[in-house]
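Our preliminary data section would be incomplete without showing what the modeling component actually yields. Below, a chain of 402 amino acids is followed by its predicted structure, encoded as tokens that our downstream tools consume directly.
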Amino acid sequence: MEYKRYKLHILLIFVLFILSGCKRKQQTYVSLPVIDIVEGIEDEGTTMMLSEVFEDITFIPLETTDECLIGNTILGIHFSKDYIVIVDRTPRQILLFDKTGKFIRKIGNRGQGPGEYLSPFLSVLVNDELFIWDIGLNATLCYDLHTGKCLRVKKHDSYDIRSMKNFNDSLLIYYYGLPEREDLKEFYHIQTLSLDFENIDMLWHEKMKLPLRSEQIDENYRRVCTYLKDGIFHVLDPNVDDETVFYMDRKLEKIPAYKLHSGKYNAYGKSSGEKYDIYSIKETDRFLFVNGGLREKRHARRILYDKTTGKSRNIIFNLDFNDWGFHNDIDGSIPFWPSGYACDNILFDHITPERLKSLMSHPYYRTIEVKNKEKHQAIKDYLDSAEEDANPVIFLATLKTE
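Predicted structure:
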């Protein structure tokens, strides 16, 4: 009798332990941080001065010569310790500048010979090595910035690569569609490729249930959004109604990071109101910069979320040019909205001199009190001497940390 009671006691303890473990696990997921940007989505437009978010902005005019003339579509801008790399779509070329904007050399050559590229599309910079996915060759090529030479090439069996990113300075992440097979045709997948091209692995198999073929995609389908923060890979699937942003840990496990509340869904997972589609996210220690639009009205919304206040705003700057960004009261130039990271705490955007000159000639600029008049004058002097077809100007903006 005592023995039975003892076994029952042990069994009860075991059950309570399991239940408590499940409860803790559920609480961990439920208690995820929530970033609510609905306030910004509903905001019809807030004007903010650049100095409210950034402490400084600097411009770098890229040198213009016949050898390094940049076209209308830049596919990638990368910053290393010593260089600026431009991946240009038209003409197809990769250009290397120093940190002052002086042209150094072209990286690689266009062609179909050994180590040559045909149509560079996606690019990642890791230390002083540039990785290019060539859509024409369906291959990834690695180039040395110092020499401009191709170090290695990796051909791919997959196709339709959508995104390539550096992960933990050791892996390249690929979104891609597998060749059409009956059991896999509904899924996108993620591959990791080591930087030396020696190891390749499949991740998150059947975790990303997205249509592969264009005829399968309905009007409500939206592409997965990914971004990097501090070397950690984040992913948001806008086709799933729980609005959870996940991150990949060093063991390559998909872990819930936070909830990004951008609207409400009904019981069928469809929007019960006007849904906000998220196109891209840039996250810093203090801010989230979210680029998206209202699905029904196609209205753009660039949302700034401040983690210190929990507030979000739709940042608008409209000077009859349909430009969106912060009112630039620091140097009185580009209405700034970040298009990428230059390094920790510094974000960048770029603009053609012709476009910038048009913006700065707008009467609105007479109403802005520019804080750094020397920088403002330096930009005006540069624009007065720049040719109409001059290469773009890069702006680096340093975030406030407090």
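The radius of gyration is 24 Å. The CA atoms of residues 168 and 231 lie 5 Å apart. Preliminary results of this kind motivate Aim 1 of the renewal.
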